[in-house]
C-alpha cells in the first residue's frame, strides 16, 4: 500500500462521501465527479491505462455533464434546499453496516484471498483493441446497435414533443 | 559538424540529464518529472504571451489598424503590461455566487489545459510522459474542460454566464465527436495510440517529400476536419458563440475579473495550442523537418514553427469569417463534419488494404471528394445563397 494509493483512496472516499452529504444537488454532482476521477486515477495506478482514461472520458466528461443538466432542467428556482438525509438514516446505517460486515466476513474467510495471485498479464490498449475486433466483435456490434437505437429513440422522443406544441 | 547539430537538437535533454547528475539516485525520477513539468509550465505560458501579441498585431493588420504599439518595440511588451494589469485589478466575486466553485472553475480549466501537454512530443526525445495511450489521455483531459466551463457558468449565478456555459457545453460536446473521429484515421494507420510512435511512423522522405499523414487523401481530410473541430473546441471565431460579445457579452466567464479572468484567457489559449500541437503530432509529422536538407535545424524549432503557423491560421480565420448562428453551427457539425469523418475512416481502411500506387490515390481521392460534394450540396439545399447587397456600406 503506497502513499499514492492512500492519497487517491482518500480522495475517492471523500468525494463520494461528500456527494451523499452535501445539500446542494450540483455540489453533490461535482463531489461525485471527484470520486469518479479518483477511481480513474486508481485504475491508472494499477497500470490499466485504457480503463482509467475511458473512465475519465465517460464519467467526468459525459456522465457528470448529463447529471448537472438533468438537475438544472428539473430544479425549481427558489426551492428551499432541503436536507438530503432521510429521517430513517439510523435504520439505513444499520443495514449498510450489516451488509458491509457480511461481505467483509465472506471475503476474509475465503481461501482465494490468501492464494498467490498469478502474475498480471501486460494488457496494452492494442491487446484490448485486438480482443474487441476479433474475439468479441459480435458483442461489440450488438452494443453499437443498441446504443444507436437508443440514440434514435431519444431523437424521436424529442421530435414528437416539438410537433405537439405546434 | 553533424555532431554539433545532434547536440544542438538534444540540448534540452542533455541539460536535463546534467541537472539530474546533481541529485541522489533515489530522487532522480521525482526531480526528472519536476524538471519536465516546470519546463512545460514556463514555456507554454511564455508562448501564450507571445501569441496574444501576435494575434492583436495580426488582427490589427487585417483590420487596417496598428494594434498594440506603445509598450516596447512594436508593442512587444504589451503582454507584460496586460499581466501586470490583471494582477493588480480587484478580484470581484458576485455576492450571490457560489464562492468555492467560482474559485475552482478557472483552476480546474488551467490544470486540465496544462495536463494535455504531457503527451505532446515537442522535439526528439522531448515529451513529458510517453504514454501507451497518449492520444486517449489527450482527449480524456480535454473532456474535463467542459466541466470547468459548467462550473464557471453555474457558480456565477448570472443568466448570461449560464447561457454562455450552455452554449459552450453544447458546442464542445458536438465537436468533440468529430475531433476524435478525425484522429481515429491516424490511429488506424499508425497502429498505436502513443504520440511518439505516431510521429515515428511519419518519419522518412520520398525524394524531398515527407511521409506526413496530411499528404494522403484521408490524412488531408482528417486534418481539415480536425482543425475545424479544434476551432470549435477552443471557442474561437467563427465558432465563438459561447462568448459572442455582441450577444451575451463574454459568456461563461462574464462574472470573472482580475487574475481569474486572465486564467480563463490562459486556459483557452493553452487549449488551442495543445490541440494545434496534437494536430501537428497526428498529421504534420510532429517535430520532423519538412525537407530532408533542412533536417539539421533542431526538432523543437520545427515543432514551434508549425505551431505558430497553425496559430496564424486561427488568427487569419478569426480576422476573416463572421460568427455562425447556433443552428448553423449544429447543422454543420452533425450534417457535414460527422458523416465526413465517418466516410474518412472508410477511406483510410481502403487506403490500408490497396497496394501502393497511382490507382490507390485515384480511388481514395474519388472516395473523399464524392461525399464531400454530396454533403455540401445537402447542406446548401433549401437555402437561397446570393450575393449580399449592402445598404449602408460599400
Detailed description of the structure:
The complex is a heterodimer of chains A (166) and B (394). Chain A has 166 residues and is mostly helical. Chain A has two domains: 1-76, Up-down Bundle (Four Helix Bundle (Hemerythrin (Met), subunit A)), CATH 1.20.120.1200; 122-166. Chain A is built from six helices and no strands. In chain A, helix 1 runs antiparallel to helix 2. Chain A is extended and about 60 Å long. Chain A starts with a helix and ends with a helix. The mean pLDDT of chain A is 82. With 394 residues, chain B is mainly α. Chain B has one domain (90-380). Chain B contains 14 helices and two strands. A two-stranded antiparallel sheet of chain B has the order 1-2. In chain B, a hairpin with a 2-residue loop joins strand 1 and strand 2 (209-210). In chain B, helix 3 packs across helix 11 and helix 13 packs antiparallel against helix 14 (358-380). The longest helix of chain B is centred in the first third of the chain and has 35 residues, at 28-62. Chain B is globular. The model of chain B has no long low-confidence stretch (mean pLDDT 85). Chains A and B meet through helix 2 and helix 3 of A and helix 6 and helix 7 of B.
Structural class of chain B: mainly alpha
The pLDDT mean of chain A sits at 82
Name of the CATH first level of the largest domain in chain A: Mainly Alpha
Measured as a percent range, the helix fraction of chain A is over 70%
The mean pLDDT of chain B is 85
Radius of gyration of chain A: 21 Å
CATH topology of the largest domain in chain A: Four Helix Bundle (Hemerythrin (Met), subunit A)
Amino acid at each position: 500500500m503506497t502513499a499514492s494509493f492512500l492519497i487517491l483512496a482518500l480522495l475517492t472516499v471523500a468525494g463520494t462521501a461528500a456527494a451523499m452529504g452535501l445539500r446542494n444537488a450540483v455540489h453533490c454532482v461535482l463531489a461525485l465527479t471527484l470520486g469518479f476521477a479518483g477511481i480513474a486515477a486508481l485504475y491508472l495506478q494499477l497500470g490499466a491505462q485504457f480503463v482509467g482514461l475511458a473512465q475519465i472520458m465517460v464519467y467526468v466528461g459525459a456522465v457528470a455533464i448529463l447529471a448537472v443538466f438533468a438537475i438544472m432542467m428539473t430544479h425549481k428556482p427558489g426551492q428551499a434546499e432541503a436536507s438530503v438525509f432521510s429521517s430513517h438514516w439510523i435504520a439505513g446505517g444499520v443495514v449498510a453496516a450489516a451488509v458491509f460486515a457480511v461481505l467483509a466476513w465472506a471475503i476474509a474467510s475465503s481461501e482465494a484471498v490468501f492464494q498467490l495471485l498469478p502474475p498480471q498479464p501486460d494488457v496494452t490498449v492494442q491487446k484490448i483493441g485486438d480482443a474487441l475486433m476479433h474475439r468479441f466483435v459480435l458483442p461489440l456490434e450488438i452494443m453499437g446497435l443498441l446504443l444507436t437505437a437508443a440514440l434514435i429513440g431519444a431523437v424521436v422522443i424529442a421530435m414528437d414533443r416539438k410537433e405537439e406544441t405546434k | 559538424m553533424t555532431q554539433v547539430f545532434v547536440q544542438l537538437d538534444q540540448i534540452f535533454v542533455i541539460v536535463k540529464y546534467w541537472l539530474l547528475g546533481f541529485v541522489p539516485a533515489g530522487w532522480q525520477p521525482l526531480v526528472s518529472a519536476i524538471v519536465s513539468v516546470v519546463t512545460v509550465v514556463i514555456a507554454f505560458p511564455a508562448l501564450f504571451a507571445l501569441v496574444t501579441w501576435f494575434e492583436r498585431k495580426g488582427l490589427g493588420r487585417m483590420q487596417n489598424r496598428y494594434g498594440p504599439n506603445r509598450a516596447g518595440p512594436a508593442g512587444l511588451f504589451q503582454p507584460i503590461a496586460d499581466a501586470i494589469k490583471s494582477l493588480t485589478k480587484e478580484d470581484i466575486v458576485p455576492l450571490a455566487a457560489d464562492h468555492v466553485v467560482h474559485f475552482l472553475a478557472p483552476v480546474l480549466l488551467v490544470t486540465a489545459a496544462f495536463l494535455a501537454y504531457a503527451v505532446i512530443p515537442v522535439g526528439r526525445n522531448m515529451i513529458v510522459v510517453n504514454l501507451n495511450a497518449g492520444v486517449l489521455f489527450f482527449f480524456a483531459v480535454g473532456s474535463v474542460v467542459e466541466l470547468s466551463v459548467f462550473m464557471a457558468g453555474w457558480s456565477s449565478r448570472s443568466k448570461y454566464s449560464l447561457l454562455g456555459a450552455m452554449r459552450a457545453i453544447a458546442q464542445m460536446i458536438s465537436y468533440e465527436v468529430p475531433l476524435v473521429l478525425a484522429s481515429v484515421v491516424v490511429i488506424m494507420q499508425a497502429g498505436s495510440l502513443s504520440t511518439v510512435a505516431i510521429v515515428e511512423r511519419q518519419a522518412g522522405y520520398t525524394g524531398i517529400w515527407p511521409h506526413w499523414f496530411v499528404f494522403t487523401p484521408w490524412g488531408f481530410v482528417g486534418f481539415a476536419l480536425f482543425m475545424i473541430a479544434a476551432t470549435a473546441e477552443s471557442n474561437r471565431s467563427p465558432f465563438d458563440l459561447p462568448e459572442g460579445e455582441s450577444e451575451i457579452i463574454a459568456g461563461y466567464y462574464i462574472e470573472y475579473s482580475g487574475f481569474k479572468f486572465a486564467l480563463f484567457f490562459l486556459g483557452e489559449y493553452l487549449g488551442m495550442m495543445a490541440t494545434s500541437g496534437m494536430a501537428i503530432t497526428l498529421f504534420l509529422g510532429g517535430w520532423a523537418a519538412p525537407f530532408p536538407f533542412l533536417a539539421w535545424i533542431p526538432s523543437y524549432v520545427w515543432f514551434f514553427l508549425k505551431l505558430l503557423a497553425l496559430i496564424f491560421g486561427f488568427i487569419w480565420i478569426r480576422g476573416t469569417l463572421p460568427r455562425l448562428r447556433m443552428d448553423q453551427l449544429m447543422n454543420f457539425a452533425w450534417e457535414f463534419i460527422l458523416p465526413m469523418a465517418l466516410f474518412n475512416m472508410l477511406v483510410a481502411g481502403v487506403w490500408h488494404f490497396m497496394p501502393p500506387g497511382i490507382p490507390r490515390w485515384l480511388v481514395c481521392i474519388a472516395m473523399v471528394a464524392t461525399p464531400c460534394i454530396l454533403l455540401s450540396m445537402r447542406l446548401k439545399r433549401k437555402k437561397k445563397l446570393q450575393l449580399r447587397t449592402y445598404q449602408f456600406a460599400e
